[in-house]
């Protein structure tokens, strides 16, 4: 593909067409990652073969609302509003209640936002490159996304109930380009749940997703992303997180699907008192490969961040965690933590941990830790002596291992839904 | 190769590569590429080999290494770009035998003289350490040591002698723990190596006193590319110390050693280094040990001087229940980058390893920990514990930590913990309350920070190390 596949069909404003054309140019001129790129050294670069995928984002038939709803584990959770995309097209929409809309809250597809609220898109969309290696894929996302969404919450508004975004890939060889832009103005509060899934458990899908999460001064954002892509999906997802003065952002990413799933997340703490809580849970089974890259950049004094990435590894699965805490010279009184815990449940699984620190201010408390170990033999023996078979024992132990992270969520319904998703992985 | 009466290397070229033509009173009947210009050429390598009267296999080894060195890129895709400032063309790769340093004590920079004085190093030693003169008295002392250990069957000599006298033992392990192609600098060393120690300890022999190097390598005082090989046969034990706490006043800008340790079944090797090079030296050293069944290798590595140090002592845990340990202290002052760390390659069941690293960044100094722990597939019961602590003294000090831990399988346990902090204000305040100046308090706090590690050094080293840290800390606060 040398020309932008959607050039002729796009009916977007000129500035957006230009943005997309520039992104396409970046995509076309950026080479695929190679192993000699330090940021991909531990990745299975050979597994990135884009041949055979329809990268236009045009494939597949729309699904009806009923089938789509059945694909989500969040059916029992109450939502203020939801948007569902299937193969990049809006398939279902539950609009915001009238009171939130009148207060100026916006929750709409990106296409609509480009038309109606260009100022938000221009000011925030892809303003911060994650810069952790997947530049090619984020460029592709900007060039092709039609399944994006905008959540905008004005100053001082709290949305008590979570909002839901769903992205489904259906059919064979299809590609999806979810793009989520969240803007919380001063002291606003919201929770957004994003769900990514394949309609067929073994279809070949390609996903390239981007999130831009902005929390203005004093704002509180909870973002939960959970994916159950098919076991043949190549999935790239980048999160850009910006927290201004006294803002708090909690982001949790649950990784269950994909053949090779790479997730990059960059938090920028830009104002004093800003805090970013970065969490991830991964169940790696079969021959799955999960590659997680994180950056915690402290750019202002008195900021804090806490990262906890937990991986459970079974079969011949492989995980990579490469994280870095960067403290800028004037970011004194930074308090940063980073932890990667790997639970090894198979003799053929492989975990790689690269927790890093780059500290240029001296009055800081920065620590990191990484562990990789099996379940203590006594615990395993205890479960077996109670008649629990090894597989169920693994499931129970993983559930227990993950609970520390899930407990950080305040919404019980979401916790329950995530537990069900994780259990579901063991049922397959 | 047949010696002939022809002059081997033209004077201009000899001067450029730092060869004193008069020292090598021989030449070859072969054609040289006279246009090779300055820097490291095949001629340089052939010359070194000839001066040392080496066997043909060593020359071949060197020449192959030269090819590897020239072909390999600098590792600046992950390491500091400061490496690009090394001008390989200007480096003097070999100072021929017999040529004494033409220096006087007056040439030694004032600050280095002061440091010698403050460390309480005797006049004679000072001159030796500054490279002003060779220490013939210590040559005698060395002979004594040599005699004592020789009675136990221990072979202890410089690498050049050993290659001549014990090729059968040397060749078996030489370049086996660290292959020439390991990295650009191990290749460089393999091409131009000179000096360094060779130790062989026979089965069951436990060498009582630590063997020291720096009073010994006077025959090749300027071996900036030394090559050390230590082999401990089954059940034997040795402790080896190199370097010293005093600064090395060096006109050279590149030190690139290769150190290989081989601990056979049940053997124990402890290798202690205190590096305090002058602040213009690139110290790029490759150190690795091979530990067989039940063997133990321990690196105690202390880096204080140099402009840039890149050194990651490692242990390949090749036999069951082998143990590896790295204890590392780094102090990075203004204009210095201490890029140090450790590698633990587990290659057998029930192998265990420990890494403890402490670094201090002063002024605009930068300390980097880089580590690798690798447990490949189908091993059982391997364990690693890594602890890294970094202390930042000034607002513009910098520290980085880049560990890489790969674990395959469910029968191991690895743990890595790192922390970065500054000296607690309460602690400084408390000491100031007791009448110490802020600088004294800071110095004491820093010594406290490394105390448990410094105590693992032999006593006189530990004392000098602490004094040196006090010196380095002076003027860093307030």
Can you count the beta strands of chain A? 20
Q: What class, by secondary structure content of chain B?
A: alpha/beta
Into how many domains do the coordinates of chain B divide?
A: 2
Share of helix among residues of chain A?
Answer: 10-25%
Task: Classify the beta-strand content of chain A into a percent band.
Answer: 35-45%
Distance between the termini of chain A: 36 Å
Q: Using the CA coordinates, give the radius of gyration of chain B.
A: 23 Å
Mean pLDDT of chain A: 91
Low-confidence stretches of chain B: 1-37, 216-221
Biggest sheet descriptor of chain B: 11 strands, mixed
Q: Can you count the beta strands of chain B? A: 19
Strand content of chain B: 25-35%
Explain what this protein looks like in three dimensions.
The complex is a heterodimer of chains A (428) and B (478). Chain A has 428 residues and is an alpha/beta fold. Chain A contains nine helices and 20 strands. With 478 residues, chain B is of the alpha/beta class. Chain B folds into two domains: 287 residues, no CATH class; 50 residues, no CATH class. In chain B, 27% of the residues lie in helices and 29% in strands. In chain B, strands 1, 2, 4, 6, 7, 9, 11, 12, 14, 16 and 18 form an eleven-stranded mixed sheet that branches. An eight-stranded parallel sheet of chain B has the order 3-5-8-10-13-15-17-19, covered by helices on one side. In chain B, helix 2 packs antiparallel against helix 3 and helix 11 runs antiparallel to helix 12. The longest helix of chain B has 17 residues. The N terminus of chain B is likely disordered. Chains A and B meet through strand 19 and strand 20 of A and strand 18 and strand 19 of B.
In short:
With 428 residues, chain A is an alpha/beta fold. Chain A has nine helices and 20 strands.
Write out key terms for the chains shown.
heterodimer; A: 428 residues; alpha/beta; ten-stranded mixed β-sheet; 9 helices; 20 strands; B: alpha/beta; eleven-stranded mixed β-sheet; 12 helices; disordered N terminus
């Amino acid at each position: 593909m040398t020309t932008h596949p959607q050039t002729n069909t796009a009916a977007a404003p000129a500035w957006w067409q230009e943005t997309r054309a520039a992104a396409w140019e970046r995509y076309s001129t950026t080479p695929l990652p190679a192993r000699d790129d330090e940021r991909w050294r531990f990745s299975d670069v050979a597994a990135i073969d884009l041949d055979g995928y329809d990268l236009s984002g045009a494939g597949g038939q729309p699904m009806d609302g009923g089938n789509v709803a059945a694909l989500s584990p969040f059916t029992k959770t109450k939502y203020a509003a939801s948007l569902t995309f299937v193969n990049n097209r809006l398939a279902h929409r539950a609009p915001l209640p009238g009171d939130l809309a009148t207060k100026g809250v916006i929750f709409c597809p990106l296409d609509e936002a480009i038309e109606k609220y260009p100022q938000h898109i221009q000011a925030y969309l892809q303003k911060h490159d994650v810069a952790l290696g997947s530049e090619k894929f984020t460029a592709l996302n900007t060039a092709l996304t039609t399944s994006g969404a905008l959540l905008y919450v004005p100053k001082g508004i709290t949305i008590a109930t979570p909002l839901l975004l769903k992205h489904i890939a259906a059919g064979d060889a299809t590609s999806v380009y979810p793009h989520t832009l969240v803007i919380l103005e001063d002291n606003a509060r919201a929770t957004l749940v994003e769900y990514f899934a394949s309609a067929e458990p073994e279809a070949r899908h390609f996903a390239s997703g981007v999130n831009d999460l902005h929390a203005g001064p004093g704002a509180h954002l909870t973002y939960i992303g959970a994916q159950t892509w098919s076991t043949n999906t190549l999935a790239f997802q980048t999160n850009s997180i910006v927290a201004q003065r006294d803002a708090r952002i909690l982001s949790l990413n649950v990784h269950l699907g994909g053949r090779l799933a790479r997730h990059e997340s960059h938090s920028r703490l830009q104002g004093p008192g800003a805090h970013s809580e970065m969490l991830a849970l991964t169940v790696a089974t079969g021959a799955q490969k999960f590659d997680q890259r994180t950056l915690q950049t402290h750019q202002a004094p008195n900021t804090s961040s806490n990262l906890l990435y937990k991986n459970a590894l079974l079969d011949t699965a492989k995980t990579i965690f490469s994280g870095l805490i960067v403290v800028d010279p004037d970011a004194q009184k930074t308090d940063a933590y980073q932890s990667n815990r790997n639970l090894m449940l198979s003799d053929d699984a492989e975990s790689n941990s690269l927790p890093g620190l780059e500290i240029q201010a001296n009055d800081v408390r920065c620590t990191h830790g990484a562990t990789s170990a099996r379940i203590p033999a006594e615990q395993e023996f205890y479960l077996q002596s109670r008649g629990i078979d090894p597989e169920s024992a693994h499931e129970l132990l993983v559930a227990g291992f993950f609970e520390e992270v899930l407990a950080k969520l305040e919404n019980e319904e979401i916790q329950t839904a995530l537990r069900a998703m994780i259990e579901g992985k063991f049922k397959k | 190769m047949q010696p002939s009466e022809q002059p081997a290397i033209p004077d201009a070229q000899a001067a450029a590569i730092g060869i004193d033509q008069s020292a090598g009173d021989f030449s070859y009947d072969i054609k040289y590429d006279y246009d090779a210009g300055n820097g490291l050429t095949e001629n340089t390598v052939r010359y070194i080999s000839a001066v040392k009267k080496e066997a043909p296999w060593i020359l071949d080894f060197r020449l192959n290494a030269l090819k590897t060195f020239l072909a390999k890129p600098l590792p600046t895709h992950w390491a500091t770009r400061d490496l690009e400032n090394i001008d390989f063309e200007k480096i003097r790769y070999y100072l021929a035998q017999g040529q004494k340093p033409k220096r006087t004590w007056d040439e030694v920079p004032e600050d280095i003289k002061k440091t010698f004085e403050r460390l309480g190093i005797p006049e004679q030693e000072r001159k030796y350490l500054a490279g002003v003169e060779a220490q013939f008295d210590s040559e005698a002392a060395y002979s004594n040591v040599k005699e004592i250990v020789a009675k136990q069957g221990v072979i202890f000599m410089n690498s050049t002698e050993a290659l001549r006298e014990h090729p059968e033992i040397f060749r078996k392990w030489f370049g086996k723990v660290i292959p020439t192609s390991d990295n650009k600098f191990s290749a460089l060393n393999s091409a131009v190596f000179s000096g360094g120690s060779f130790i062989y300890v026979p089965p069951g022999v436990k060498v009582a006193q630590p063997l020291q190097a720096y009073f010994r390598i006077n025959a090749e005082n300027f071996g900036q590319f030394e090559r050390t090989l230590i082999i401990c046969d089954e059940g034997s034990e040795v402790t080896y110390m190199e370097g010293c706490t005093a600064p090395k006043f060096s006109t050279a800008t590149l030190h690139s050693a290769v150190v290989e340790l081989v601990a056979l079944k049940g053997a124990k090797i402890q290798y202690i280094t205190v590096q305090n090079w002058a602040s213009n030296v690139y110290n790029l050293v490759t150190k690795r040990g091979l530990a067989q069944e039940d063997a133990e290798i321990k690196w105690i590595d202390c880096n204080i001087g140099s402009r840039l140090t890149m050194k990651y002592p490692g242990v390949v845990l090749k036999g069951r229940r082998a143990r590896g340990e790295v204890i590392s202290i780094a102090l990075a002052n203004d204009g210095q980058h201490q890029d140090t760390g450790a590698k633990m390659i587990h290659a057998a069941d029930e192998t265990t390893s420990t890494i403890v690293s402490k670094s201090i960044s002063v002024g605009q100094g930068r300390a980097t920990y880089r580590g690798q722990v690798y447990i490949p597939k189908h091993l059982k019961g391997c364990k690693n514990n890594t602890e890294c602590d970094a202390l930042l003294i000034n607002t513009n000090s910098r520290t980085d930590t880049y560990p890489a831990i790969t674990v395959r399988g469910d029968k191991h346990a690895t743990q890595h913990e790192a922390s970065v902090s500054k000296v607690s204000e309460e602690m400084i305040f408390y000491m100031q309350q007791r009448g110490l100046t802020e600088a004294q308090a800071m110095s004491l706090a820093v010594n406290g920070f490394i105390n448990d590690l410094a105590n693992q050094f032999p006593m006189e080293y530990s004392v000098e190390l602490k004094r040196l840290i006090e010196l380095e800390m002076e003027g860093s606060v307030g």
